[in-house]
Amino acid sequence: MTDRVSTQLRGRAQWIILERPERLNALDQEMYRAMTRALVAASKDPQVRVVVFAGEGRAFCAGNDLKDFASGSLDPEHSPVMAFLREIAAFPKPVLALVHGMAVGIGTTLLLHCDQVIAASDAQFSLPFAQLGLVPEAGSSLLVPALVGHRKAFSWLVLGERFGAEEAMQAGLVNRVVPGEGIRAAGQELADRIAALPPAAVRESKALLRHPRSAAVRQAMAQEAEVFARQLAGPEAEEAMVAFFEKRAPDFSSFT
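Given the sequence above, the corresponding structure tokens read:
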């Protein structure tokens, strides 16, 4: 693993913990690689019956590390980002996520591929793709409208409106909201409850639940990646990211 992602086996639950608290667990390319390796290992380990994602520090995940991300490539075949998204979308065992503080961009969209999500009462979600000159990813252009309808999806994915834990629960993105100090205990309790069930029945049930939309999710992810890569290399994303690092408002007034 990398020192920014750790794994811990707790009972029959494999915890994957983001450990970059000084950057609010913003993800770089190596962190994506580490998470993918952890998922692959967990899928093959008969001792693991459930995976739990969590983050150290004040936030679950502040999205992508923009400096690292802008310097990379979103080649759908070789990008560490796309490899992780494909792995979590197809992961055969139950996946839980424990969200506290900020969950930005991928910090929110990865939840669409989790089977259960517990949020701390202080959790704040945002999907600022358009503000960065980018487009939705991780199948969110398909899965978010299916969850909340077109108009709310537009508010989240295009306007980038933030929303809290209670709204996320009402929308069906989150199963349960708990006080922040109790989130890991609640996560372990739920993981243990799932791990106590017949494992083959759980895997087969998950597969049946996911099957009707699995091909559509793969297609949406591929289409998103193509457009995302084009936007990432374009002038709008460049202006958005330069403005971010210069700590000023971006100016898109001359763009068409």
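The mean pLDDT is 95. Try to locate this feature in the token string yourself.
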